[in-house]
Design goal:
- Chain A: It is an enzyme of class 7 (translocase).
- Chain A: Pfam families: Rnf-Nqr.
- Chain A: It catalyses: a ubiquinone + n Na(+)(in) + NADH + H(+) = a ubiquinol + n Na(+)(out) + NAD(+).
- The structure holds 2 protein chains of 2 kinds.
- Chain A has a domain at about 30-165 and about 200-220.
- Chain A is built from 9 helices and no strands.
- Chain A has helices spanning about 5-10, 15-20, 40-45, 50-70, 80-105, 105-120, 120-130, 135-165, 210-225.
- The longest helix of chain A is centred in the middle third of the chain and has 31 residues, at about 135-165.
- The two termini of chain A are about 40 Å apart.
- Chain B has a domain at about 75-240.
- In chain B, the strands form 2 sheets. In chain B, strands 2-1-3-4-5-6 form a 6-stranded antiparallel sheet.
- Chain B is of the alpha+beta class.
- Chain B starts with 8 loop residues before the first helix and ends with a helix.
- Classes of the chains: A mainly alpha, B alpha+beta.
- Chains A and B meet through helix 5, helix 6 and helix 8 of A and helix 1 and helix 2 of B.
Amino acid sequence: MADTKTKEKEPLFSKKNLGLVKDPLADNNPITVQVLGICSALAITAELKASVIMALSVIFVTAMGNVVISLMRNIIPNSIRIITQLVVAATLVILVDLTLKAFVPDLAKKLSVFIGLIITNCIIMGRFEAFALGNTPWKSFLDGIGNGLGYGVILVIVGFFRELLGSGDLFGLGKTYLGHPLLGNPIKGELSGLYALGYENNGFMLLAPMALITLGLIIGFQRSRNKSLIEETH
Amino acid sequence: MSTKRTDSNIYTIVFAVILVVVVGSLLAFFANATKDMRVNNDKVKTQLDILSSIGVEATRANATEMFNQYIKKQFVVEGTTATEDAEAYLIDVKKEQNAAKEGKTQRLPIFEAEKDGKTIYIVPVRGNGLWDAIWGYVALNDDLKSIYGVFFDHKGETPGLGANITEPFFKDDFKGEMIYGPSGDFKSVTVSKSNGDPNNTDKTDNEVDAISGATITGNGVTAMLKKGLGLYLPYFETLKK
């Protein structure tokens, strides 16, 4: 993500600003380190396609919402700031929903559940409250992009393993549409590829508990590489 | 803090009012501006769905043309009498189900399609999955005893699990399946976890193979078919004569 060339040319991408995008991708990841947005990460990652679409939607809403909140940060009354943030997030989500329904109805149909879920995503409210209220629009925009990406990366990784091991498929394409099926055809009587060798899909991967275990493994892997993330135990 | 202008009650109230008015107008304007497109999209989607149940895959661009080509007649059934109605496909099944609950006669749309020289009858069905509504169209061969094809859709079933009722691997299992038992009694089609027939070679067992991890959605499909098709039985009897 970090491009050192743009950094030299463009002061907008100072090292600190780039950090806003980079940090949430790894050492300050909203899901694996801050443990926010877990619910949707477990709920919608049974398919890679849904993960990608959800990730894109959340990136849009965190980035745009952060900008709007940042622009309004000096005029928002302190006592109703949370509900103001909620209104901004909900408005953006409804606008996205209406636009998709009018112009790409088939995609909107696939998104239907997730669009509503975006409003409840803790990451969005978290970034509005913790960052956008105290920073300039440009920095808030980068922070929104970074956190949206950090969320999306984990979603895509979890979705990749769940769909591959659970359905033997990726993007819903592997089974029938591509000339070379990913793992083979699992229908009994016409077993091919890995299935002919006795391999079977693990249906458990499609259920939420395995999403939690997959996520746990990712967190464990990340902490084994970066010991500073491990909390002190008493 | 208390010296800040934004902390006064008046300011807070004015801010809230302005925010709500601005956001409200923005959303209302946007919803109105896109309304016609959304209504038309829904109409076209219904046409696509009905065509899908008889295995005709149209696109949004040619949906209306194909719909007029394949769907020869549309009727509204009330009891055992059918009235022709060219806009029967726009009948809202959910509204009719609610009307039936209030004791009114449910208006039942049925479409007569012609494909490859065969007459096919298509009826809409609607029920509940795990999270929200599921619905579909069931196309019956002209003997009115076996299924020609089905179309299912859902509002919010779990992706990768219940949402797979829209996938060909599930829908194709219904093709040719009998909705009557061997003795001629109405059985509908059951989504079964234990039929031991994953390839669905037995078309007379009134069962299709369920989707793993989607038990409640599958049961929803079973209930939807039984209830939905059941409503048309009196009319089917008159057609068979």
